[in-house]
User: Which sequence fits this backbone?
């Protein structure tokens, strides 16, 4: 009896120690053979893993839902919103098949990638991001109008009260109350902040030199809210607040948002059409361009692309294990910029302008798997 | 025959030698190597943080990194940890100050006054509450606590200050709801169960004789607690508070969800601030620049060092202050 | 000196003082316990509406599903949580028990003071740093986010807790039991394995459960290890070697999302998480009771 107990306890102990070994060592060495067996047993089903910016996440995940239905559950696209910076970083670390970002890859990053993969890293616009100035001013029901100078002065803290004559000058019909301006900004790193600050940078030298633009910056004034949610909550709950949110979010929460005078001198009310119009400019081949303060006459000035990041030589990406996965990734990519765009308006996104779609096609044609131009083949098959 | 017995006995002896001596050796080696793996884990963590964070420490200098309040990830790429260091210390000390007496009160109530069944219920609840996940507290904070505090406390106080004493305004800060005060109160709520449990343990260790002697002198129940129980348990209580402080320093999710996350310095009471864990969780995912990422890792290293000091301090107090001189009973 | 002063007060005064303190203690107990009970109440109140059959059988998908009222749920999250937490338990149990045995059964070992400090420091470290460590040692070398990496990150959370609880559970076993074993000629390792550990069984299990409950609620270390997934993986190996969803991390992303529908799913996820923790807790309490 005792003996059995003893043996049992020894067994238990050995089992525990072994399981540790198996899990910690076996896990690592088995990983390559594991993916192999996964392929053979479920040869048909493929997972495409992507991650990045949170702004396009609702669109991309909705696309993933639809795409799963279209392919009869064969292709699952797993997109996690971890933020633009995270998208770039994980893309470079090659832990994901595609990244999403609202801030395009820098020359330095692209040069590094070119060195390590002997190929380019493409920035492909998938959708457009637009940021509106949201406010909460008691007694003001009309839509207020800002120009660039006014916004810069407000966010620099140079204008501290809503009854400042500089505000009244552009909005002669509105009677502003004498309450202090409370600036609300994002506290977490965010692509929305990137677009907003890049607009302020492109219209003001002072802003560019003092604050600059990035996913998080050193704000001169104001309070921080965590996420779109936090900013919206803070704006709606504090009289005199001025913040910034994406247009779809402002619409969803029924917030007041301002019209902005663009560089052509037109008063532009934010809308999906105005956002699409903003991108209707002469795009460079790699689409790496900021068009905040767009020269397009009907364009809303605070807008930018959300890019999908894909390697030119797909086999170099550690996250992609087989040609099949590469093919499904490219197919999904083609679908997002063609049929997938039909989801845009319903979900609160502006449609991609034709110029951007054409540029994307150019880039897809260059995508290769072990030298084979799979992008070209698939694109041909998809368009015909 | 004899020879055979002799061989047999040698065989048996060597078997038992293997069984006893070798068995003990193998067991000890296994156990010690498992123990060492924990030490390696802790050191490994320190090494990873140092390895990833040393770029930032080199660029800013250790002193510079600790004392600079500039955190600019966009233009100048200068990173200083002072706002976060300060935010962490203020919220944690604040939480401990708020939590200390209520926690001790609950512990004394459970241990000394409450009938056994009630004490059991409360103690179980305290333990259970300690197990409530941080994110659950966070979601409650966002949707219930913050709006409520804004309506009932922050805004009335702010309005009052606006009308009566405007010199207070810069200290109070914006009554937006998310901020230092909210985070500190939530943090206090979260460490109360922890402090209570540790205090209760300390009180339970007080020998019966100690109490009985005091009762024999004709002391009332409260006097017994004051004269006999708390002085005896003070080492444990103090060490428990220091450990709770350590717990508060490392608390991440709920604080990040409620503190408002702004790296300003100096800070205000109601206004947003940031702590070391909150800045890590907020910006780690978005950091693109290597120096930015490295600075976040360096903050992790600072956190590690502080945590180490707090734990060393707690161990020291337990040894120094307890009447038994650190001997466990 | 203190007692001298007391004698100057009348007995009645002292008794009133005594009653006053009792009242004060009771009030502060109530005041502190109330908000904590309210938290649980709110979670249940807000989340109960989102709990239905779909919640336990459907995958999450995109937010449009929830907004348009199409079936959506967290089945993949619950399965993922179970896998990741079990992995964490399997990894952490031997290390934690081993260290606990070292601390309690070899009290004179030279490394013990150091081990104890390191263990406590590890326990006090914010969980996010443990996630960073798991990212560095598992995700980067393996080249992918995985349930295994999440399990390792949570194991880092559990190990110090299990080590501590094992130590105290073994310490509670009187030395006389060990001495009895040694006296009849048993080697030390057998005394530990077949006498001390079985005797401390309930204490050990309680420690596991507490560590388990603590780890099950951690979101921060999972963001960069198990990563998240909106669907069930294609194959069960995907649970271990691919990105998986876990409750706390999903709860966090639901809570900070801009959709009301997702908020209520977040509350519902809170209910599941809380019930899980409470069940673990009740089991551990019952075990402790049984022992006494």
Assistant:
């Amino acid at each position: 009896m005792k003996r059995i107990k003893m043996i049992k306890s020894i067994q238990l102990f050995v089992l525990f120690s072994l399981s540790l070994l198996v899990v910690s060592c076996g896990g690592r060495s088995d990983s390559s053979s594991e993916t192999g067996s996964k392929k053979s047993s479920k040869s048909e089903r493929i997972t495409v893993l992507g991650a990045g910016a949170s702004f396009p996440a609702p669109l991309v995940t909705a696309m993933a839902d639809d795409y799963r239905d279209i392919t009869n559950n064969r292709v699952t696209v797993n997109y996690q919103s971890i933020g633009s910076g995270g998208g770039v970083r994980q893309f470079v670390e090659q832990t994901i098949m595609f990244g999403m970002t609202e801030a395009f890859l820098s020359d330095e990053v692209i040069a590094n990638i070119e060195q390590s993969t002997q190929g380019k890293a493409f920035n492909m616009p998938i959708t457009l991001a637009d940021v509106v100035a949201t406010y909460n001013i008691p007694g003001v029901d009309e839509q207020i109008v800002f120009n660039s100078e006014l916004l810069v002065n407000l966010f620099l803290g140079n204008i501290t009260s809503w009854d400042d004559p500089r505000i009244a000058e552009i909005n002669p019909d509105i009677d502003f109350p004498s309450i202090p301006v409370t600036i609300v900004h994002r506290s977490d790193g965010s692509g929305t902040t990137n677009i907003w600050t890049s607009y302020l940078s492109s219209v003001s030298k002072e802003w560019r030199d003092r604050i600059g633009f990035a996913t998080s910056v050193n704000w001169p004034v104001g309070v921080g809210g965590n996420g779109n949610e936090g900013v919206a909550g803070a704006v709606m709950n504090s009289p005199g607040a001025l913040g910034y949110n994406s247009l779809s979010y402002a619409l969803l929460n029924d917030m007041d948002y301002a019209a902005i005078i663009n560089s052509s001198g037109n008063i532009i009310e934010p809308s999906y059409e105005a956002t699409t119009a903003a991108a209707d400019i002469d795009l460079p081949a790699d689409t790496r361009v900021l068009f905040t303060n767009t020269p397009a006459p009907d364009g809303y000035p605070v807008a930018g692309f959300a890019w999908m990041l894909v390697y030119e030589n797909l086999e170099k990406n550690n996250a992609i294990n087989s040609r099949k996965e590469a093919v499904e990734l490219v197919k999904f990519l083609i679908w997002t910029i063609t049929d997938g765009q039909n989801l845009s308006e319903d979900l609160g996104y502006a449609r991609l302008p034709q110029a951007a779609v054409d540029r994307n096609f150019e880039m897809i044609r260059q995508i290769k798997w072990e030298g084979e131009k799979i992008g070209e083949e698939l694109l041909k098959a998809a368009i015909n | 025959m004899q020879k055979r017995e002799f061989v047999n006995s040698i065989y048996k002896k060597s078997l038992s030698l293997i069984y006893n001596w070798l068995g003990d050796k193998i067991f000890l080696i296994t156990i010690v190597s498992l123990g060492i793996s924990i030490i390696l884990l802790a050191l490994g963590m320190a090494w990873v943080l140092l390895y990833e964070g040393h770029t930032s420490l080199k660029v800013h200098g250790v002193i510079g990194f600790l004392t600079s309040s500039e955190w600019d990830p966009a233009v100048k790429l200068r990173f200083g940890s002072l706002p976060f260091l300060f935010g962490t210390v203020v919220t944690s000390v604040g939480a401990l100050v708020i939590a200390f007496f209520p926690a001790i009160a609950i512990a004394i109530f459970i241990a000394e006054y409450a009938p056994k069944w009630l004490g059991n219920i409360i103690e179980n609840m305290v333990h259970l509450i300690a197990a409530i996940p941080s994110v659950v507290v966070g979601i409650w904070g966002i949707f219930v606590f913050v709006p409520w505090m804004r309506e009932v406390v922050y805004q009335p106080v702010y309005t009052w200050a606006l009308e009566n004493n405007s010199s207070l305004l810069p200290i109070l800060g914006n009554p937006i709801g998310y901020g230092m005060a909210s985070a500190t109160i939530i943090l206090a709520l979260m460490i109360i169960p922890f402090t209570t449990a540790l205090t209760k343990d300390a009180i339970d260790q007080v020998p019966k004789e100690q109490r009985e002697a005091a009762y024999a002198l004709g002391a009332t129940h409260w006097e017994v607690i004051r004269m006999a129980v708390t002085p005896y348990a003070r080492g444990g209580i103090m060490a428990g508070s220091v450990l709770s402080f350590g717990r508060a320093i490392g608390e991440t999710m709920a604080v990040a969800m409620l503190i408002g996350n702004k790296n300003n310095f100096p800070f205000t009471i109601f206004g947003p601030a940031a702590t070391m864990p909150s800045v890590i969780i907020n910006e780690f995912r978005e950091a693109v620049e290597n120096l930015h990422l490295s600075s976040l890792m360096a903050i992790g290293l600072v956190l590690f060092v502080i945590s180490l000091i707090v734990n060393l301090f707690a161990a020291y107090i337990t040894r120094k202050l307890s009447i038994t001189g650190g001997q466990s009973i | 000196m203190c007692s001298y002063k007391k004698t100057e007060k009348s007995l009645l005064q002292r008794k009133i003082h005594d009653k006053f303190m009792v009242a004060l203690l009771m009030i502060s107990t109530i005041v502190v316990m109330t908000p904590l009970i309210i938290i649980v109440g709110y979670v249940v109140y807000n989340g109960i509406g989102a709990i239905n059959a779909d919640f336990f059988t459907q995958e999450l998908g995109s937010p449009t599903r929830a907004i348009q009222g199409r079936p959506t749920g967290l089945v993949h999250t619950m399965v993922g949580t179970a896998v990741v937490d079990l992995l964490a338990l399997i990894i952490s149990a031997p290390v934690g028990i081993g260290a606990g045995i070292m601390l309690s059964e070899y009290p004179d070992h030279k490394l013990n003071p150091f081990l104890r400090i390191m263990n406590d420091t590890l326990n006090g470290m914010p969980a996010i740093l443990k996630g960073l460590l798991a990212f560095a040692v598992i995700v980067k070398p393996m080249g992918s986010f995985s349930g295994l990496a999440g399990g390792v990150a949570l194991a880092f959370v559990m190990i110090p807790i299990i080590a501590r609880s094992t130590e105290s559970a073994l310490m509670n076993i009187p030395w006389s039991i060990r001495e009895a074993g040694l006296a009849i000629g048993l080697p030390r390792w057998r005394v530990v394995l077949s006498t001390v550990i079985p005797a401390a069984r309930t204490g050990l299990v309680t420690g596991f459960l507490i560590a388990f409950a603590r780890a099950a609620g951690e979101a921060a270390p999972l963001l960069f290890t198990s990563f998240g997934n909106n669907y069930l993986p294609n194959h069960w190996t995907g649970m271990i070697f691919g990105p998986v969803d876990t409750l706390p991390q999903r709860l966090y992303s639901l809570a900070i999302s801009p959709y009301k529908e997702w908020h209520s799913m977040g509350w519902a996820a809170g209910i599941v998480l809380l019930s899980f923790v409470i069940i673990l807790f009740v089991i551990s309490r019952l075990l402790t009771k049984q022992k006494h």
